[in-house]
Amino acid sequence: AMLRGACVNHGGRAVTLTAPNGIAQQNVIKGALKSAGLQPNDVDFLEAHGTGTALGDPIEVAALKAVFAKSRRDAGVSPLAIGAVKTHIGHLEGAAGMAGVLK
Stretch 38-65: mean pLDDT, rounded? Predict the structure, then answer.
């Protein structure tokens, strides 16, 4: 695997303090793709935040679908493979991102 780009944002304007902001998630995914010089159908695997919550996971999956589904379908490529290391080892808080990269 190769890290080609990155993007950071904040989804603070959401329904509640702990509710993810789906639009902000879409924007950060698009920003990371742009930074990497990639199109959605160039990505083969995505390591999701995937906290395993009833609120967060559907919002994250909807954001991923909004960014990747149509482009991949139109290009005739297979659906995006998604993983989430937290389901195996739990949430490592500050080290959670690194666990996903190492996976």
Answer: 94
